[in-house]
Design a protein that fits this description.
This protein is α/β, with parallel strands linked by helices. The protein has 3 domains: about 130 residues, Alpha-helical ferredoxin (Fumarate Reductase Iron-sulfur Protein, Chain B, domain 2); about 160 residues, FAD/NAD(P)-binding domain, CATH 3.50.50.60; about 150 residues, FAD/NAD(P)-binding domain. Helices cover about 30% and strands about 15% of the residues. A 5-stranded parallel sheet has the order 3-2-1-4-16, with helices on both faces. The chain has a 5-stranded parallel sheet with strand order 6-14-7-8-9. A hairpin with a 5-residue loop joins strand 11 and strand 12. Helix 5 runs antiparallel to helix 6 and helix 13 crosses helix 14. The protein is globular, with a radius of gyration of 23 Å. It starts with about 25 loop residues before the first helix and ends in a 21-residue tail after the last helix. About 50% of the residues are buried.
Amino acid sequence: MTVPASPVPAEGSDDAPAKPKLSNKERMTIGRVSMPEQEGEVRARNFSEVNLGLTYELAMLEAERCIQCPKPFCVDGCPVRVDIPRFIKLMREGDMASAAESLLGDNALPCVTGRVCPQETQCEGVCIRIKKGDSVAIGYLERFVADWAMQHPEALPVLHPTKTGKRIGIVGSGPAGLTAAGELAHKGHDVTVFEAFHAPGGVLIYGIPEFRLPKDIVQAEVDRLVRDGVKLQVDAIIGRTYTVPELREEFDALFLAVGAGLPVFMNVPGENFKGVYSANEYLTRVNLMGAWNPDSKTPILHGQRVVVVGGGNVAMDSVRTAKRLGAAQATIVYRRSADELPARQEEVHHAIDEGVVFDYLTAPIEVLADENRWVTGIRCVKMELGEPDRSGRRRPIRIEGSEFTIDCDLVVVAIGTKANPLLTGSAPELTVNEYGYLLADEYGMTSMPGVFAGGDIVRGAATVILAMGDGKRSAFAIDSWLNGVWPPVGADKETPQKVPAAG
């Protein structure tokens, strides 16, 4: 399990450093710390976590950079509204137990979000310090405190909420489902989570690679929720094992958080040839089914020249996985420029360090194969950028006569996902939009009374932390609804808007 590189000295010990009180003027002179990480050439050959975590000394230095704003915009920038200044203040005062209690009280999965949340566009993106330099490294500090809490469970209070007698079923054990489960269990409800796969975690366990989010970290977060009273039922496919109406008869309320796991393809000739994967299948084989392990019985193609189509985090995960599976050349093909790349800056930086090639303003038009239908290349065309489309990014326009071929033996398509109709098809009472996503009101209530929904099945493919925000809001709404308070008083409302998945 990944832990901070340096243990936290006990308070009052000879090893504990003095804590001089700094003025905000002095804090503004402290530069942002860097995350220790494996060297690019080394990590490109292993599946161990890339980021190694801050040492105690680095974490405390970074915590000193927070100036404790009277109006903390960082909290507004966080989809789960973590009280960021509070946990950082407690941390730098040396009260790690209280810092951990504060963080865990706001965030059901802090070890996860400290690793994969796009802080640069959320809490850190609105940090007041970016006006004169770099933001506080909130994500690094969140990971540090969360990892400390994981290693010191005895330091945290054991919750004993009054039981309500209400039973709630949650469909899907990804970030939205787990967050809602934790929130509702802490309110005293009897919570059961249904998961279609054999292991809980959803996209956290099948979609995000080990080198970015170790699976033992996800399991530890799940185990903590189980200790808090959450029940898990795996191998339960809602729409087959049970239907939504059947579950609704059994439970007082439901929360549907099944994600959007149906892959989107390019619709070009040849994408049914052997050697073409969807990113979903490619990453699931490696992450959930252990195909990265040479002793695994799960088959996976080890391409030597791999092309990944797409520019989001899933594309980065796929191309970096290909490098670790032995690809001599791994290339990202993206139809827009580097400025429009939707992936996290950190993931792009890591990919470049690991030797990934980026072929920008390029779009596939055909997959090529030999007489046995095995992939031999991908035919592409160069693009130029026109006016913005409905996503707000400049629309790529084909340049006629610019066709060329990239030789490859493996293609991974990572251009987005869409809603799987399996669950909604078993419940015609549920209203969906034109894309097949569930329609829910600003509190997460669907067209079926007592059935709520959130995460990607409502908003479309998005980030882990946005799904968690949906889970937290819906948990509040479910508790209010069960207590006869409707609409909820003081609810943090949001109506997610569907954005087409294709990049």
